[in-house]
Amino acid sequence: MSDTTMRTSVAAVVPCYNAGDRVAPVINRLREFLDHVIVVDDGSTDGAAEPLRELGATVIALPQNQGKGFAMMRGFREALALPNVTCAVIVDADGQHDPRELPALYRNFVEEKADLVIGAREFDQAHVPWRSRFGNKLTAGITRALLGQRIGDTQSGFRLHSRPLLEFIIEKIPGGRYETEMEILVKAVRNNFKVTTSPIQTIYEEGNPSSHFNKFRDSFRIYRKLLKVSLFR
Fold first, then answer.
1. Could you report the per-residue pLDDT of 16-34, keeping only the tens digit for each?
2. Which of 20, 62, 93, 186 is the most buried (most CB within 10 A)?
């Protein structure tokens, strides 16, 4: 595996909603590794996405905010339109994922012949709040019980998807908000796509002002989607 292969065959999809000045450094770092960086501006009002074209990113502007899941689907369609792309990686716009860890995810993708590689964080660290550690372990435990497969970090948004999985996703999943990532995971396992994990650093920022994740509302949506998709195929 060469850096050149990864550069031309991987597309990054960056859902973006009012990420402000955090998103430009993310795009610059991704462009160090990849030719194809797709920013999906999910109805932002801060004007931060449009200048990213000058950094070499493709910017797709949605007319109104629909949710991360809808932005992901739009980005996946754009990635699939690129004939040399074999996989797409989702990267958060606010700097919660380090693009320098992308080569390790891609190495796992190639060596394991995987369809979904999840960047798995280590939550047993002092700087991670107890509620985040508890929530992650609870979700991982429920997921294992329902799916029969141990996945250490079901909530990580740093994920690499194969082209066959992408084609399946855009046909079967309409999109949504944060629960879309759980739906992708469950349906990947249920439909015999190979799911693996690759360790990544835990970048945690208490009270991140650019995060739009609502702990109660979005957690409810994630658990509801997990139960619905797992129990009612």
1. 999 999 999 999 999 999 9
2. 93
